[in-house]
């Protein structure tokens, strides 16, 4: 049976060479994983840094906007929360109406110029959003089919008034939310009064496909 024993003179590669090749392969895989992990961490750190820088820029823009609207803010005629300018519906409109009251028209005239400067400097648009409470339109009012239509007409009225006061028409647009985005429970008149509002929010301008992209 000696002919079946391995005397070390076999023509095949020695076992230590195979083991060495295996270890080399494992080390190579480990290095690749390490490189990928480091690259992922660097990319994540870069993304976090960019996000923090954008957050700081957004905060600075909001502070500039608040400074520009210091007068109406101090008088309580408007509020600013998370970059959104809120105006009570009772300041702008009578109940179930889309016609501006004198107080509302005067307020929008004051807001137009600082908003124009802010939008121009930051290359942004202004979204005008109309909101209502949850009460249905009174049966005697034939002007609006529902709260969606009322909120839409109020947003359009504010948009047109701002344009008439000097805000460029290509910097502003209207949106309607009806009673779908309340800021207070519609349980009593005080809550409903808060929900009857118009909000103005600067938003990024969408680059037209016909315009050349930056750096190319």
- Radius of gyration over all CA atoms, rounded: 32 Å
Tally of structural domains = 2
* Widest β-sheet, arrangement of strands: 1-2-5-3-4
Q: Taking all residues together, what is the mean pLDDT?
A: 82
- H/E element sequence: HHEEHHEHEHE
Distance between the amino and carboxyl termini: 80 Å
Count of individual helical segments: 6
Secondary structure: helix percent: 40-55%
Indicate the low-confidence ranges by residue numbers.
none
Strand content: 5-15%
Question: Structural class of the helix and strand makeup?
Answer: alpha+beta
Assembly context of the chains = single chain
CATH topology name of the largest domain, in short, is 60s Ribosomal Protein L30, Chain: A
What is the name of the CATH superfamily of the largest domain?
OmpA-like domain
User: What about the largest sheet?
Assistant: 5 strands, mixed
CATH-derived architecture of the largest domain = 2-Layer Sandwich
For this structure, what is the CATH class of the largest domain? Alpha Beta
Number of strands: 5
Molecular shape: elongated
Keywords: Coiled coil, Membrane, Transmembrane, Transmembrane helix
Transmembrane segments: 15-38
InterPro entries: Bact_OuterMem_StrucFunc (IPR050330), OmpA-like (IPR006665), OmpA-like_sf (IPR036737)
Organism: Congregibacter brevis
């Amino acid at each position: 049976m000696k002919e079946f024993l391995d005397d070390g003179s076999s023509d095949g590669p020695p076992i230590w060479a195979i083991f060495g090749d295996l270890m080399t392969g494992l080390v190579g895989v480990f290095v690749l994983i390490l490189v990928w992990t480091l690259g992922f961490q660097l990319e994540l750190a870069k993304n976090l840094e960019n996000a923090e820088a954008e957050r700081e820029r957004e905060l600075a823009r909001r502070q500039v906007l608040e400074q520009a609207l210091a007068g109406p803010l101090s008088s309580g005629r408007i509020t600013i929360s998370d970059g959104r300018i809120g105006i009570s519906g009772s300041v702008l409109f009578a109940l179930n109406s889309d016609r501006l009251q004198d107080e509302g028209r005067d307020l929008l005239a004051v807001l137009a110029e600082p908003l124009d400067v802010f939008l121009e400097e930051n290359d942004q648009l202004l979204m005008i959003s109309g909101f209502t409470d949850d009460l249905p339109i009174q049966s005697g009012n034939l002007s609006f089919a529902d709260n969606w239509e009322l909120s839409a007409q109020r947003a359009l009225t504010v948009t047109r008034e701002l344009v008439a006061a000097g805000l460029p028409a290509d910097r502003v647009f209207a949106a309607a939310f009806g009673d779908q985005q309340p800021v207070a429970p519609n349980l009593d008149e005080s809550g409903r009064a808060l929900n009857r509002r118009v909000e103005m929010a600067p938003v990024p301008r969408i680059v037209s496909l016909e315009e050349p992209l930056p750096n190319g």
